[in-house]
Amino acid sequence: MTYLFDPEPVRTAVVQGESATYPVRRIFCVGRNYAEHAREMGGEVDREAPFYFTKSPLALTRSGETVPYPPGTTDFQHEMEFVVALGAQAFRIATQDALGVVFGYACGLDMTRRDLQAAAKDKRRPWDTGKDFEHAAILGAITRTENVAPVGPQAISLAVNGVPRQAARLDDMVWSVAEIISHLSTLYHLGPGDLIYTGTPAGVGPVVPGDVLEGRIDGLPPVRLVIGAPE
Ligand code: MN
Fold it and tell me: For position 37, what pLDDT does the model report?
């Protein structure tokens, strides 16, 4: 079989301490998974079930890059997140079994064109242009689960130019990692290469060209991003 043009190369993530990379298949993101962030966005956590949006793998950019300030927005914002990288298939998996399909964890940034997302919310339209665009999913190195402490009171934080913006603990999450995987697996055949951005704590806010973002979670390599000039 021949292609009419060269297909996009598979996007990959770095795995801490290894030369082999993690090929990314899909990117799922959880909305409103920290109560304080839900409130700052003018909403409430839905206690019935988590909800999701997705990003294309083409949105993936590795930690350490400088990315252009994106087109179409005047309110480009950071969302620091704990990212789950799956390493096995899961369909209708029980909560008590769900952590068994996790390959590892990483620091990530769910970069957002907040003005476009807000306009979409107002008009009950999809969030895609606010959430799924080039360089909107930033990912630090993945650490294998066996090298990470169980998810609990680890600190998650983000600083812009050294000034703290977001700070919380992983056990502030409304839906646990196992609950998210179990629920998401009722909707999709999950598999290796699927990433789940598990939502952001309170303190999201705008960035401008020249800003340096550093996100940290205890026990994981940090995620760094520099905002470049507009395209
Ligand atoms: Mn988010």
Answer: 87
Cα of 1 from ligand 1 centre, angstroms: 39
Residue whose tokens read 């306009």: 119
136 CA distance to ligand 1 middle (Å): 10
Q: What are phi and psi of 88, to 5 degrees?
A: -155, 165
CATH number of domain containing 74: 3.90.850.10
Is 7 within the bounds of a domain? no
Q: How many domains does the chain have?
A: 1
Q: Is the dihedral of CA 31, 36, 39, 44 positive or negative?
A: positive
Asked if residue 4 is part of any domain, the answer here is no
Domain that holds residue 107: 12-230
For residue 105, the CA-to-ligand 1 centroid distance in Å is 16
- Give SS3 for 202: coil
Higher pLDDT, 38 or 71: 71
Q: Does residue 171 lie within any of the structural domains?
A: yes
Burial class (CB in 10 A: 0-12, 13-18, 19+), 192: middle
CA of 110 relative to ligand 1 center, distance in Å: 5
In a domain, 222, yes or no: yes
- Kindly give the distance from the C-alpha atom of residue 89 to the centroid of ligand 1, in angstroms, as a whole number: 24
Contact criterion met (CB below 8 Å) for 170 and 68: no
- pTM here is 0.97
